[in-house]
Amino acid sequence: MTLEYLRAGYRFGHSEKLSVVPVTVTERGIFDARHKLPAWFRQCPDFDASLRIKDRITDYRNARLKRIFGSIGAALSLVAADILPLAWGKTKPRRLAEKLRARSKARREASQLALKIDPKPGDVLFMPAWWHDNPPSAYASLLAARMIVVPLVHDALPLTMPHHYQLPVWFRAHFLTTLSMASHVMHVSRQTREDVEAIMMAENLKIPEGSIAYNGYNFSPSSNRRAIRDGLSARFGGGRINIIMVGSLEPKKNYQFVLDSCERLWRAGATFNLLIFGRKAWMYQDLVKTLNTHPRRNGQLFWFSDASDVELQFAYENADLCLSASLAEGFGLPVVEALAHKLPVVISDIPVYREIAAASACYFDPTSEASFTSALTKAMNEPEFLAELRAKAENFRWKSWEECGDEVFRKLKSLHDGQNLAGSGRDIASGPEIGPVPAISAPA
User: Fold this and answer.
1) First to last CA, the chain
2) Is the model more confident about 437 or about 405?
3) Contact in structure between 208 and 303 (CB atoms under 8 Å)
4) What is the second-level CATH architecture of the domain 2-48+119-216+401-440?
5) What is the mean pLDDT of residues 325-335?
């Protein structure tokens, strides 16, 4: 998802003559992170638009050499640490191996520090992910240097539903303090913005200026059918209704509620298939055990923990219904994906789903089995109602990542243009998801 922002940033920077550069932020400063990008992304047509950042790195040529040779030294130290114990036995080289591993780590860190960027007043630091992993002091120094710091909030659910997460003790303080310091805050939905502002008001914290930056969606049909495993393609067809659920395995997705409710429907004679597409996230152990030992596993219940993008597209294209029983969400991309594929959706009646899907969905109370059963059986057993849902899905429209990304960067540019920064240049920023990944821009 965060790479979509970098793509959008490159396009925008190219058209506006601005430099958009991925960076990593630590308490030591801001560092060029382009070398961390996948090779295919470095071949992006607009990637060269960001190369002017070298003018902002002291002694750029030597910095690159330090990073390259530092990385080589780190790798050699690590190899030596693994080989020496095998050559010399187990006892004597153990301390040497530990020293070599420590040296490898130190060299790797030093190679990153070589590409430190000198920020200027008016540079925009856009942080689409993982910004809360840094202590607020990392951003305080940037704000003191008159940078414009803009985090993107995907949800506030770790604070509103803490029992559904496993978070370090510092998370709440990092999250709220950074937001209270920010120049501007973007939220992926109105509901997320309301949640954040309600929490900050209750904590008597400054509520910064904010805006909505919805996630986008790009539709691409699954043309490569050979990339779809037989175990998945065989599940569709055969006269049964196929219902898919898409989302990581975590408590707020409410999977156990769905499994319990569906089991009672199956015992009553229902013949539908339930296909779950989701990787393990957190607090999933009991659910995974249930899925692996369920008596209907690979009969009417199927779990795909490693589906590719092509396979997920295939599922959206061939399913009869998409189901989501989430107790809360920050946005709800699978709902948008399903509707974009003209797939009828039966989803929980939560505010953010109403915001996104509006009248295009069938809703149920995610805490009431009676409500869930009524909605699902109506969609499965009443052809006229299912046709109505399909017609609503046909009329659903959502903006592409290109459109949403362009709106985000136009907002970032407007934040820069609204500053009193005579002579500072025209700057903007974005970044990919590499650890704590914000981004910075350099003057054109």
Assistant:
1) 27
2) 405
3) no
4) 3-Layer(aba) Sandwich (3.40)
5) 97
Give the least confident one: 46-55, 346-355, 382-391.
46-55
Three-class secondary structure assignment of 129-177: ECHHHCCCHHHHHHHHCCCEEEEEECCCHHHHCHHHCCCCCCHHHHHHH
Tokens read off for 431: 């970044």
pLDDT tens readout for residues 173-231: 999 999 999 999 999 999 999 999 999 999 999 999 999 999 998 877 666 666 788 77
pTM beyond 0.85: the answer is no
Give me the phi and psi of 124, to 5 degrees please: -105, 125
Q: Are 94 and 47 in contact (CB under 8 A)?
A: no
Task: Please enumerate in sequence order all residues whose Cβ is within 8 A of that of 381, keeping only pairs 6 or more positions apart, or say none.
Answer: none
CA gap 278, 289 in Å, rounded: 14
> What is the tens place of the pLDDT at every residue in 242-300?
999 999 999 999 999 999 999 999 999 999 999 999 999 999 999 999 999 999 999 99
Residue 152's DSSP bridge partners are 186
Q: Yes or no: say if 11 and 46 are a contact pair by the CB < 8 Å rule.
A: yes
The token duo for 260 is 């319990």
Q: Where do the domains of the chain lie? A: 2-48+119-216+401-440, 58-114, 225-394
Q: What does the DSSP assignment read for 17-45? A: T---EEEEEETTEEEE-GGGS-HHHHT-T
- Rounded CA separation 408/186 (Å): 9
Write the DSSP string, 293-331.
H-TTBTTTEEEESS--HHHHHHHHHH-SEEEE--S--SS
CATH code of the domain made up of 225-394: 3.40.50.2000
> Do the domains 2-48+119-216+401-440 and 225-394 sit in the same CATH topology, yes or no?
yes
Residues 39-53: what's their mean pLDDT? 53
| pLDDT value, residue 263 | 97
* pLDDT tens readout for residues 81-100: 555 555 555 555 556 556 66
Burial of 62: CB neighbours in 10 Å, binned 0-12, 13-18, 19+: exposed
